[in-house]
Amino acid sequence: MIMFRCALVAALIAVAAAAWQENVRPKVFAQLVSGVDDTHKFLGNETHTDFFRLLLRDGNYLLVGGRNVVYNLSLTDLTEQRRLIWYSPENDVKMCVVKGKDEESCQNYIRVLVSLGPGRLLVCGTNSFKPFCREYGVQRDSYHMEREKSGQAVCPYDPEHNSTAVYADGELYSGTVADFSGIEPIIYREPLQTEPYDSMTLNAPDFVNSLVHGNFVYFFFRETAVEYINCGKSVFSRVARVCRDDRGGPHRFKQRWTSFLKSRLNCSVAGDFPFYFNEIQSTTELIEGVYGGLNAQLIYGTFTTPPNSISGSAVCAFSMQDIADTFEGTFKEQSAFNSNWLPVNNAKVPEPRPGTCHNDSRQLPDKTLNFIKTHALMDESVPAFFGEPIVIRTSFHYRFTQIAVDPQVKTPGGKAYDVLFIGTDNGKIIKAVNAISYDSNKRAVPIVIEELQAFAAGSPVRALRVARAGRDAARLIAVSDREVLSLRLHRCSSDKISSCSECVALQDPYCAWDKQAGRCRAYSHGVSRWLDENSFYQSVSTGSHTACPHSKDAGAVGGLSSGLYDDARGENKGEVINIVQDKDGKGNSNNNEGPEVLAADPPPAAYSVETLALAVAAGALAALGAGFAAGYICGRRCKKDEDDNMPYPDTEYEYFEQRQNINSRIQAEPKLLQQVEEVTYAEPVLAPQPKPASPRATLRKHPPYHPHHETLFQFQPDAYRRDNFGTLRSHQLTQEYSDHRAMGTGAATTTASRRRVP
Ligand SMILES: *[C@@H]1O[C@H](CO)[C@@H](O)[C@H](O)[C@H]1NC(C)=O
Ligand SMILES: *[C@@H]1O[C@H](CO)[C@@H](O)[C@H](O)[C@H]1NC(C)=O
Ligand SMILES: *[C@@H]1O[C@H](CO)[C@@H](O)[C@H](O)[C@H]1NC(C)=O
Ligand SMILES: *[C@@H]1O[C@H](CO)[C@@H](O)[C@H](O)[C@H]1NC(C)=O
Ligand SMILES: *[C@@H]1O[C@H](CO)[C@@H](O)[C@H](O)[C@H]1NC(C)=O
């Protein structure tokens, strides 16, 4: 057996290594030189960290949330036009400090801002861990507060919490947490919410984005995977959706979504044992384009490996059609605790089909509603468009964070490409394209055009956006915790790019060789015949053009580009560019010699060091992949055929501990959202049910292993006798916190019955 496993692992390493592609080297490394034109910078409050959020684009203005402030910036040069100042009331700050948060957190970080109509804004802030929302009227040169209400379940408590919100049909949809300690995740639109404390619905999610499409609102997030819990803890990426016309169900479903479904997003390197980039970090808005002759609406996202593993990052795209298809497919269920999660036989799915939109959801039958409550997860995962990640990076130094896409940039000849801007957690912005996206939607060929050090190496890129203001050229807006930058999208006309072949070799959709002018340039208003391939030479898919004289050094370095340049810090240029030059090798001498064309042969030393590093990284990743796969197989094997004798005590322990944890912390915070007469359902572990028909019922009956189980169960019999659906919360609230609740706001009430554990 052991020998078999060893052989298996060895085989796996071979497979994984074979499937892994090398990092694609950027063609250009660029660095911003401060104080130079054409890069605009906004610093906000220079003495305190603003934790900036890009909140709204209002015509030629950009609204950026900060610390006790919303900044209204001009899109053209990031100059501050005006500001909306909103400090937390002193009492809230005091209470925040009393509850043990530090002074920096006990501020009002603005996290949500939507336009309610002309001249009206809804603004929500963390308000010292007591979220609040206000409506403002935009006046001639100030903002006027009109009303305010609790921002619970709309805005996070913690400024760093990963939340999302989107405004549609006059309603705000939010994905966040609804409690002080950040353990009650929620997808909310007044008055509907997801089931509280139900790990089947949301299990410690980090939301990354939300958007409206068709009849649905979609949420993108990562969460601890319930379907994987038997095999250890893992985080999966998800897309969830609710119907826009959902009005809640009858009676006990009155304040619950009746249409909440979710699917896994599959961003992986294919193989016998696929390697998954499991943790989604960001997505773009909806991108429409033509890919291999097919019209599609895509969402691009960045995905990474877990924080404690070797860092790998990828960009995957998903089509809205594929996402919708998974929601039309089979459901997933675990028929008994400890058994595998399997597809649900279609014959078991009630009519009307759970998760489809109905014009009056309040008339849906209980059968449908009960089904969707326990079957929110779809069986199929959403496959990546193009069949594979578009860009993969392995690096010990950074991971991808944010992504922005400039859709369908037209190149001479008429082909159009999506240009990807990818932020990293060490302040870089990587610009990439899929070189064959116009010709194929089955495959991706990554081209990394440029790597730009936009922020200091310790500053993660927190947001990216491509913004066009009027007839000005589009700009890339990049945000870190302390800075907002506005950057050019390209560096085509850099004087370092002096020949046709160099220009074409960039494979940058923004750039083309202007035959008439004899220089590399970008499209701008007034350039006629841009699309005429006889006037402008470009070939994004190949990087070479027959009309360009093949310069002596073309394709010299790894076939990537044509030129080897010394990096010259141009006194008036603003950027340091070195094309296909190693960052640490020769030629990077930071002198002012100006461009210098080197011989065709690449400097061997520097290049081979990089190759070595890559080899090490690939090996490590291969091992990681193999380990994962081996574990997975073992997991499946054990899980399948051993009887209920707890094959994974550790896992089990962890699972219970997690529950227990929630348990104990619930006491620390009352449930503030309005509840229907306790229609909430019991937490799996906590409320025994008479008929072990459902998987969760089985779970409840499972012999307790956790040392805390007695604590867990001690109030149960009572709870059960009283109310089948009694929540944990309803029994746990203690007098001590009623005071706290009393401090809550108008909208925030609770109807949970408060009963003490005997
Ligand atoms: C920065 O924040 C501090 C503390 O909130 C405030 O006193 C100061 O005025 C702010 N500075 C600017 C430039 O807004
Ligand atoms: C931002 O400032 C500009 C210029 O003062 C103003 O015209 C615009 O209405 C402001 N936008 C918002 C949403 O405050
Ligand atoms: C939010 O996400 C980032 C990375 O995506 C992570 O580092 C951070 O811990 C998350 N915030 C919270 C409060 O979990
Ligand atoms: C994810 O996609 C890969 C590659 O297409 C495939 O091999 C794998 O089975 C998929 N995984 C899931 C869970 O669907
Ligand atoms: C829902 O649709 C049905 C038929 O499509 C229609 O008869 C009914 O009036 C609609 N109900 C509402 C509340 O719009």
UniProtKB/TrEMBL annotation:
Where would you find the membrane-spanning parts of this chain?
Answer: 612-634
For this protein, the record's InterPro entries field holds: Plexin_repeat (IPR002165), PSI (IPR016201), SEM1A_sema_dom (IPR042068), Semap_dom (IPR001627), Semap_dom_sf (IPR036352), Semaphorin (IPR027231), WD40/YVTN_repeat-like_dom_sf (IPR015943)
Q: Does the entry feature the keyword Transport, yes or no? A: no
Low complexity bias spans:
743-752
SMART domains linked: PSI, Sema
Task: Outline the extent of the Sema domain.
Answer: 25-489
Leader sequence segment? 1-18
Q: Does the keyword Signal apply?
A: yes
Segments of this protein annotated with the region Disordered? 735-758
Q: What is its main location?
A: membrane
**From what superkingdom does this record's organism come?**
Eukaryota
Q: Which GO terms describe its cellular component?
A: plasma membrane
Entry's Gene Ontology BP terms: axon guidance; positive regulation of cell migration; semaphorin-plexin signaling pathway
Keyword list, A-Z? Developmental protein, Differentiation, Disulfide bond, Glycoprotein, Membrane, Neurogenesis, Signal, Transmembrane, Transmembrane helix
Q: Which Gene3D superfamilies match?
A: ligand-binding face of the semaphorins, domain 2 (3.30.1680.10), YVTN repeat-like/Quinoprotein amine dehydrogenase (2.130.10.10)
- Which Pfam families does the UniProt entry name for this protein? PSI, Sema
Q: Where in the cell is it found?
A: Membrane
One GO MF annotation is: chemorepellent activity
UniProt cross-references to PANTHER family, sorted A to Z: SEMAPHORIN (PTHR11036), SEMAPHORIN-1A (PTHR11036:SF127)
For this chain, the family text in UniProt reads: Belongs to the semaphorin family.
- Descriptive protein name: Semaphorin-1A
